[in-house]
Amino acid sequence: MTTGLLPSDATTSAAPARRSAGGGLGRYLLVRFLLIFPTIFILVTLVFLLMRTIGDPITAAQGGRLTADQLAERISAAGYDRPVLVQYFEYLGQIFTGNFGNTISDNRPVTEVLLTYGGATLELAFYALIVAFIVGIPLGMLAASLRDRAPDAFLRIFAILCYATPVFFAGLLLKLVFSVWLQWLPVAGRASTRTELAMQTLPNKTGIYLIDSIMLGSPTAIGDVLSHAVLPGIALGLLTAGVFLRLVRTNVIGTLGTDYVDAARSRGVSEFRLVRKHAYRPALIPIITVIGLQIALLLGGAVLTETTFEWKGLGFQLAGYLAARDFVAVQGIVALLAVFVALTNFVVDVIAAVIDPRVRY
Predict the structure, then answer these.
(1) Facing residues of 109 across strands?
(2) What CA–CA distance (Å, rounded) separates 327 from 35?
(3) pLDDT in tens, 182-200
(4) Phi-psi region of 310 (alpha: psi -120 to 50; beta: other; left: phi over 0)
(5) Cβ neighbours of residue 158 under 8 Å, at least 6 residues apart?
(6) 186 with 227: CB under 8 angstroms?
């Protein structure tokens, strides 16, 4: 007598399992997507309240340059003489319509500032991530394969220095060595004046100089843009490279202690091949998960990096608005960056859930 399931029965029993797995992924993505809204709400609320503890933005920015009557008129026209709670709900209503306010110092919509300078900051973050991957992942694998030896100790110290060194200090050192002493690379800016003027003639320029230089079709322009990006990308990328190095090292060492790696080692597989073939891919999953957090770190470090290298992006503009005490601009830019970080974290969570099924449960 046959006791097993018929093929049709096996197929039927497997279907709920597949639906359950799909449902697990669907529920996970839905929960992560819904969490975006309270996250943005909390961040926007905190930024608003912190800005209001300083006082009204008109007095902060124009207090020493306007008479008392002019100041009172400007405050009343902007609505800053109303209760803070009323201003708060009005600000939330503006955000839902995509209006983040106008800057006080130059009377520009904050969204226009984002569109004009956001591409430069995204480009810098892209270069920094490339540096972090190139430096952090191979060195982390090397440290794991040579664990508890002198090179491993040196690499761990290097990782701590990368993370602990202030970005502006690393940038100044890089400028001193490679721009002033060796004169290999440009000292500041995103491109030479000639390249910038050439890119201005493009009918559909993106504001991301690497893309614009490629659209220009000039190898000289592409080389000029990349040469200007080397030092800022390294200065900001080393900050994240230190995190990646330690994370990869820890996870590779953990993977090397698993049963299937011990079985491969018993068959005579070399340590280098074990790291490269068996421990490398599992160690990348935590990296993908952490990328979302590192985007926030990169955007924070971009303020100092852009100021140090006169890289005219959102960080450079934010520093200028802070110096001008233009807290409406600061509030709007920080709120927009918070939205971007929340959306980036959601995308990273989706990628991590697709790659590693354990994440969704």
Answers:
(1) 102
(2) 28
(3) 999 999 999 999 999 999 8
(4) left
(5) 139, 242, 245
(6) yes
Instruction: Kindly tell me if the per-residue pLDDT of 5 is higher than 70.
Output: no
Give yes or no for residue 310 having a pLDDT over 60. yes
3 state DSSP class of 201: coil
Tokens 């300078």 correspond to what residue?
117
- Residue the block writes with tokens 């390249």: 195
Show the beta-strand stretches assigned E in the chain.
Answer: none
Give SS3 for 198: helix
Rounded distance between C-alpha atoms, residue 207 and residue 191, angstroms? 12
CATH 1.10.3720.10 fits domain 110-323 = yes
Query: What is the rounded distance in angstroms from the CA atom of residue 316 to the CA atom of residue 308?
Result: 9
% of the chain exceeding 90 in pLDDT: 28
Q: Which residue matches tokens 């839905």?
A: 30
In the chain the first and final C-alpha atoms are separated, in Å, by 40
Is this prediction's pTM over 0.85?
A: no
Domain boundaries, the chain: 110-323
Distances (CA, A) of 54 to 51, 309, 328: 6, 30, 12
